[in-house]
Write a structure and sequence with these properties.
It is built from 15 helices and no strands. It has 312 residues and is an all-alpha fold. Helix 2 packs parallel to helix 4 and helix 13 crosses helix 14.
Length: 312
Amino acid sequence: MKTIDRAVLEELSESYHLLSKAFKWRMDFYKHMIAVAYLHNHKPVNVYKIQSMMDYMELNAGPHSTFNEGVQFLLSGILCAYEDDPEKTFDTMQEYGSHLHAIGFRKPIFVPVSTYVMSRVCDVESYESHIHSSNKIFEQLSRRHPFLTKADDFPLALLMDSSQTDVATVDAYYQALLKRGFIKSEGLMPLAFVLSLSGKDKDQVAKDCRRIFQELGGIRLKLRLEYDVVLGLLNLIEKDADELIEEVHDLVRNMRHVRGFKWLGKDLWVTMAVLIIYSNYLDSKEGVDHLLELARLTTVTSVISAVAIQVS
């Protein structure tokens, strides 16, 4: 295993340990995602700042807010990992949330996730226009895929609008994935969107994704449908597919023996491994690539939604 990968897992384990000690009764998956967020932004976990942010949310969210205790913990951790002024960002998210409520989105976890996405991709001055255009995209998705499109797809609509990717383009990648043997599922549309950000031939990337999916299955890391989106990140990395699969396998093999990670299960092992590999890839590039960052954000929000549905 590469030294950098071992150091990364040790850092993740230490971050998870700090979070578990300070927030014993919070969902383990949220602790893992917060640890990955701090790792991605190259910051040490600050449990006191996270607790302070949770207190701020509790004080300012109101009794009927969709920011419940579990969501408060997750978003407090992510905001503290990425934002210089997390309180100010939360205030803005609250304003966004009131407008989402007005157009009918009220479900806990999905409204907070949507407002977080908006805080990353919207200009404060034009957010109402962004909500309006994203809602149109959401309605188009609902018409094309009425049995698969639910409230948890609104963050995807926001991301599609931010990248100026139309529904027809994403749907073309979606159909290419179906032709390659993928099954219709809630995780397939986010994967199609991530692949569309590559600008590559839809049939070729669908073929490449199917191959990676099958190779992972061959080493007992077959993903459930709702986690297919992580395949898109691997496809965006400019590296040989066999090498990437070996990196994922290597990280997962070692993750099984890391404190706090050995009980995650293969879907989340692969997810964590891919996020680590992708973060390293982003770090290796000069400057920030907006589309590559959107792909990461799409994957994270999709996985959070998948886990939230499982435990709800």
